[in-house]
Amino acid sequence: MRLTWLLGAALVTLSAAWAWRPLEQPEPNGFFIDLHAPPTTPIDDEDHLFDQGAFVVRLWNPPPPPEARNALVAGRTAPPPKPLRLQLIGIIDDGRQLRAALYDPETDRLLIVATGDRVKQHTITITADAVELADGRVTHRLTLRKDRS
Predict the structure, then answer these.
(1) Which of 22, 39, 45, 131 lies deepest, with the highest CB count within 10 Å?
(2) Contact 100, 131 (CB under 8 A)
(3) pLDDT above 70 covers what percent of the chain?
(4) How far is 44 from 30, CA to CA, in rounded Å?
(5) Domain presence at residue 97
(6) pTM across the whole model
(7) How many domains does the chain have?
């Protein structure tokens, strides 16, 4: 055991001496740069100036200013209206006014409406054989078929 301690201590001492020895100085060669030597070429020449234009890059796209954003929003057209999927089932005359039975397949409901009612942002107008739905821009006309029995 004593021999192991002595050999271990000798190896640690040799390793420490090897690690702490001074480094060799490299020989200066053609790639050695003397920082204190004066420059040998003039830097006043137009071809050697720093070109800042090489680094002009748009790194991010900021949002436009509010007045430009408002002009963009005003220039956009409104999206086309969603197709109206109502089906006219029948027109009912109850003696006082005309009512229409409309089927909405999106909600699977039967709607009973009168003139002036609103369905899906459309105002209803009922005649004896048709129903008109107007939203201010477009008017849809639903008519009854005469060939059904």
Answers:
(1) 131
(2) yes
(3) 77
(4) 26
(5) yes
(6) 0.46
(7) 1
